[in-house]
C-alpha cells in the first residue's frame, strides 16, 4: 500500500468536493501545530508535500494526498487554537463531523498528540466524535525528540488512561518524531497493513 509516489490532490472545504472514494484512506487529526503536516511529509519521504508551518491553523482545508495508486493520506484541519473566529470553528466542526461519519473508504484515523502535552479536552472531544462515528483510531505522539524519557513516560501513562475511555481507540500508542524519523517506518507499516 505504501509503494509509489505521493501527490497533492486537492484541498476540500465541503463534502461535495471530496475525491471519489475509490481507494483506502487514512486521516490525521490533531490540535493545530501538533505536527500533522510534518508527519505526512515524513511518511511520504517528502520535504514540503503538506505545508508545515509555525502559524497555527495553516491547514484550513481537508487536504488529500495520494500515496501510490491505492491510498489517500488525509490532512485534517487542526483544531483547538485560540483566536479562531467562532464561525470558522463551527464550519470546520461541521465538515469534520460529516467527513468522519460519511466516508466509507476511511479505514483509520490517527489522532496526533504532542508528546510534551498529552491529551487535552479538545482531543477528547475529537476522540468522542470518532467513537460515535465508529472510526477506529490510533494515537500518535508527535515531537518525541522534544521530551526526556521521564516526562515521556508520564505522558504515556496519561494517554493510556485517556484512550481506555474510548471504544474506538486502539490501545497501541505510537511515539514519533517527524524531525528525527522515530516511529515513521512503524507507522508506515501499520498503514500498509490496512485492508
Ligand atoms: P496545522 O496545519 O496548523 O494544524 O499544524 P500541523 O499539525 O500541520 O503542524 P505542522 O506540521 O505544521 O508543525 C508545526 C510545527 O511543529 C512546525 O514548526 C514543525 O516544524 C514542528 N514540528 C513538527 N513535527 C515535529 C517533530 O517531530 N519534532 C520537532 N522538534 N518539531 C516538529
Ligand atoms: Mg498542517
UniProtKB/TrEMBL annotation:
One of its GO terms (molecular function) is metal ion binding. GO terms for biological process: division septum assembly. Its cofactor is Mg(2+). Pfam families: MMR_HSR1. Keywords: Cell cycle, Cell division, GTP-binding, Magnesium, Metal-binding, Nucleotide-binding, Septation. Transmembrane segments: none annotated. One of its GO terms (cellular component) is cytosol. SUPFAM superfamilies: P-loop containing nucleoside triphosphate hydrolases. Residues 22-195 form the EngB-type G domain. Necessary for normal cell division and for the maintenance of normal septation. Belongs to the TRAFAC class TrmE-Era-EngA-EngB-Septin-like GTPase superfamily. EngB GTPase family. This is Probable GTP-binding protein EngB. It comes from Cribrihabitans marinus. The gene is engB.
Amino acid at each position: 500500500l505504501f509503494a509509489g509516489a505521493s501527490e497533492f490532490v486537492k484541498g476540500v472545504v465541503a463534502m461535495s468536493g471530496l475525491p471519489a472514494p475509490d481507494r483506502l484512506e487514512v486521516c490525521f487529526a490533531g490540535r493545530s501545530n501538533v505536527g500533522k503536516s510534518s508527519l505526512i511529509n515524513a511518511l511520504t519521504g517528502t520535504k514540503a508535500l503538506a505545508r508545515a508551518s509555525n502559524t497555527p491553523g495553516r491547514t484550513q482545508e481537508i487536504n488529500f494526498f495520494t500515496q501510490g495508486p491505492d491510498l489517500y493520506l488525509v490532512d485534517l484541519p487542526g483544531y483547538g487554537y485560540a483566536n479562531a473566529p467562532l464561525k470558522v470553528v463551527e464550519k470546520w466542526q461541521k465538515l469534520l463531523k460529516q467527513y468522519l461519519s460519511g466516508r466509507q473508504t476511511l479505514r483509520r484515523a490517527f489522532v496526533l498528540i504532542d508528546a510534551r502535552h498529552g491529551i487535552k479536552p479538545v482531543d477528547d472531544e475529537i476522540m468522542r466524535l470518532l467513537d460515535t462515528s465508529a472510526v477506529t483510531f490510533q494515537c500518535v505522539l508527535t515531537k518525541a525528540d522534544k521530551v526526556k524519557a521521564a516526562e515521556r513516560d508520564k505522558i504515556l501513562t496519561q494517554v493510556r488512561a485517556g484512550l481506555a475511555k474510548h471504544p474506538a481507540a486502539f490501545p497501541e500508542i505510537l511515539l514519533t518524531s517527524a524531525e528525527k524519523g522515530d516511529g515513521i517506518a512503524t507507522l508506515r507499516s501499520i498503514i500498509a497493513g490496512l485492508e
